Amino acid sequence: MVSVRSVVDRVGPTLLHALQVPDDSPAVADVVIAEPGGALTLAAGDLVLGVATTGPEDAAQLVKRSAEQGAAAVLLKPPLAAKPAVKRAAKASGIALVQVHAATSWAQLVWLLRTVLDALADESEDLDPGSGDLFRLADAVASVVDAPVTIEDTNSRVLAYSARQDLTDPARVATIMGRRIPDDVLARFRSRGVFRELSRGRQTIFVPAQRDGTLPRLIVPIRMGGELLGSMWAVVAGPVSDERAAAFADAAPVVALHLLRRRAHTDAQRRASAELLRGVLEGRANPRKAMAELDLSDEPHRVVAIEVTGGDGRDAEGLRLALLERISQGIGRRPVATELGGLLYAVVPDRPGPGGWEELRDALVGTGPSRRNGAARAAAGAPGEIGDLSASRGQADEALGLLRAEVLDERVITFDEAWTALTLRARRHCAGRVPSRRERRVVPPS
To answer: Is residue 101 part of a domain?
Structure first.
């Protein structure tokens, strides 16, 4: 059964926001556009797009008629979707009401919804939209602009690139080999204002050849619903005609749909992994089953408790997600992570090298406090097997308590390193007083 909620979750909050979804909503079957002035003929489970709805009364009537014919949901843009009369009609009729982002193209939404429905309808299908699709799309875009192309996310990581290499330079080679724009190349493009122009919504950006031999670039932002999802970079020989530049820009909405599908799939996987990891940390889940589903290697792991404080007014969850994104950049693999009790918990192998604790520690130490992202304190429990992760979490919490109480000056610490201070604190607590800073630095004889 394909539910309204699963469709909304898969498309993602960038485009859709469920205002009301009854528990007994019918399974979603198809997408139908409500034509202006036309007869409304629906089948059970249809998603009805109020493309030509003009006012609250018109929208409320569409909701009632859709419910009478067994539709699953009505999709409207603001401000109609949130009008009291429309919401009352949806509640009284028992039909789901979904708000569509104001800047979303109805045509793009129809294509995306049908793609999502096809994927959800086949539970045996790999729901990953497929990096292969993006690579084929990069080839198609390269043909349109007649130049080698890379598709990158907002962190300058390469998601796909075209096969043609007839026009290239060291910067493109290094970008593809490292799967992201090298820092020195990134700095040069940033100094030319490229990323500032991307954020401002320019349709195309031309960067002339540079003194170090970097060839010219034609860059197009990838946007959907007003949100910047990434960019496309074409290596060109020189200035590009208006026709070619426009054709390159016209491909961006198609790429945006693929990136949204990719992100929706990644978010769904992350939510499932986070829930399973919560079960492991709380001692509720089968450790061996969790190890397989979370793709954890058979080696000792540490649980790292991370607390984020401060920031510029964004909510705590947003700060934690932003931190996870930041510490994941440049790390061998994204840490298996979840939120629990207001903290971010990450599980990493206790080893040096890519993806290990030492690399995560370096990333956390390098993530200094800022006005926008706040400050982070982190503590890692002792290493243990998969069945010991709940104990490692408890140790991480204990060590983090020292950092919160400012017993230690560090921002990142392990349970091993904090053991002496923890022992002294426990003894002094039993004696009814808190140790002085000098006493806390005393190491008891072994």
So the answer is: yes
> 141-144 long-range CB contacts below 8 Å, 24 or more apart?
141/232, 141/234, 141/248, 141/251, 141/255, 142/234, 144/247, 144/248, 144/250, 144/251
In the predicted structure, residue 311 carries a pLDDT above the cut 60:
no
Which token pair is 380?
């890692």
Report yes or no on whether pTM surpasses 0.85: no
Domain count, the chain: 3
Report the distance separating Cα 109 and Cα 112, nearest Å. Answer: 5
CB hemisphere CA count around 265 (13 angstroms): 17
Domain ends where: 260, 276, 303? 260
Taking only the tens place, the pLDDT of each residue in 166-218 is 788 888 888 876 778 888 888 999 998 999 888 887 789 999 998 888 999 99
257 exposed, middle or buried (CB, 10 Å; 0-12, 13-18, 19+)? buried
- Alpha-carbon span 166 to 235, nearest angstrom: 10
The per-residue pLDDT for 329 is: 55
* CA pair distance 192, 211, nearest whole angstrom: 13
Task: Indicate whether 178 and 247 sit together in one domain.
Answer: yes
* DSSP bridge pairs for 277: none
Residue 92 lies in a domain: yes
Which residue in the block uniquely carries the two structure tokens 């979750």?
A: 9
